[in-house]
Design brief:
The complex is a heterodimer of chains A (184) and B (180). Chain A is elongated and about 60 Å long. Chain A has 3 helices and 10 strands, in the order βββββββαβββαα. With 184 residues, chain A is α+β, with helices and mostly antiparallel strands. Chain B has 2 domains: 5-40, no CATH class; 44-174, Nucleoside Triphosphate Pyrophosphohydrolase, CATH 3.90.79.10. Helices cover 19% and strands 43% of the residues of chain B. Classes of the chains: A alpha+beta (184), B alpha+beta (180). The interface between A and B is large, with 65 and 69 residues.
């Protein structure tokens, strides 16, 4: 495995910017010696939360994804506002669902779409929950939320009703955590 | 519940591979929002390639955005092809392997808040070396077959950290196409 970057970057600029993402364009010489450009998105690192109730059912939310142009069942989460991931997870969960949790576990950090993006997502497990009765509604994309037993979560994935890779990643990590907790 | 409505759409950046849109949008409550996202020209395909011992092929792919090689499953652009056809082509180009036993498990979105990137997940079983055109351009190496539990250990220690790999592995397991 090479340790130095086999791509030579001759110049680099930000070609688009908003509070959530920057688009960077590098002029490069590829490992085979060709000149070209490499454009990619630098979005804020994100968080996703697997919320479990006492029965170990998982909280799923329904929201509209504008880039995909459809309503989808997902786990709550979102782009961090360049803050600490643990703080972002608590803020996102409460804003989107009105849920507060007493017990938090960090389950892992994964990468998204490595060809065009550098974003990393931190998955948290949230337990011992309560509902505040309040949530942000005006700007949020979430319209519905419910607890679903794990076998039904799996069935939703098999039927394609949960088809978001980030949510499935978090479900995988949550189930591994549950299996380990059950074994102890 | 009403879908979001696009009031105007502008392409603020474009490469051969993708466009960045900045749209003025009304959400389900009628609230105006400015929404930017990455629009990929072609959907992609990812292949879970399983050999006759039930081991799964992983490879190290250089990722420019991360600046290093990551352990991943073979994957690439579909170039307008159906998932299994694109999967057969990509598997040959990247690994030199063929299979007579393909399953299309449907498509997963990569990051629904930021992009429409969609990846069809295909499982190819009983893969074997075949005849065909390899792609020498891509910086891919260390093709290795691992057991599912070896891959899961690599996920636990952070050696494998690609969300696409975790999701594809989970989906293939749910469909009963790979076993512990």
């Amino acid at each position: 495995m090479s340790v130095s970057n086999p791509w030579k970057i001759t110049s680099s600029k930000i070609v688009y910017k908003n509070p959530w993402m920057r688009v960077q364009e590098d002029r490069v010489i590829t490992p085979t010696g060709k000149e070209g450009i490499y454009g990619y998105v630098l979005s804020n690192d994100s968080v996703i939360v697997a919320v479990l109730n006492d029965k170990h059912e998982l909280f799923v939310v329904r929201g509209f994804s504008y880039p995909v142009a459809s309503w989808n069942w997902q786990l709550p989460g979102g782009g961090g506002d360049q803050e600490d991931a643990a703080i972002a997870a608590k803020r996102e969960l409460e804003e989107e669902t009105g849920i507060r949790a007493e017990r938090w576990e960090k389950l892992g950090v994964t990468r998204v779409c490595d060809g065009f993006m550098r974003e990393r997502m931190t998955t948290y497990l949230a337990q011992n929950i309560s509902f505040t009765g309040e949530k942000e509604t005006s700007n949020e994309k979430i319209t519905d939320g419910k607890f679903v037993p794990m076998p039904e979560v799996d069935a939703m994935i098999e039927r394609g009703e949960i088809n978001d890779g980030q949510s499935i990643t978090a479900i995988y990590l949550a189930q591994k955590w549950l299996a380990k907790a059950g074994a102890n | 519940m009403a879908d979001w409505k696009t009031r105007s759409s502008e392409v603020v950046y474009e490469t051969k591979w993708f466009k960045i849109h900045r749209d003025e949008v009304l959400n389900q409550n009628g609230t105006p929002i400015t929404y930017s996202y990455l629009d990929l020209a072609h959907p992609t395909v990812m292949i879970v390639a399983v050999n006759d011992e039930g081991k799964i092929l992983m490879q190290q792919t250089y990722r420019y955005t991360v600046g290093k090689k990551l352990w991943e499953f073979p994957a690439g652009q579909r170039d307008g092809q159906a998932p299994v056809d694109a999967g057969k082509r990509e598997l040959m180009e990247e690994t030199g392997l063929v299979s007579d036993d393909w399953a299309d498990l449907g498509a997963l979105y990569s990051a629904t808040g930021v992009t429409n990137i969609q990846r069809a997940i295909c499982v190819a079983r009983n893969v074997r070396p075949g005849q065909g055109e390899r792609d020498q351009e891509e910086d891919i190496s260390n093709h290795t077959f691992f057991t599912v539990s070896e891959i899961e250990a690599m996920i636990r220690d952070g050696t494998v950290d690609s969300s696409g790999v975790l999701a594809a592995l989970y989906l293939a397991k749910l469909h009963g196409l790979i076993k512990e």
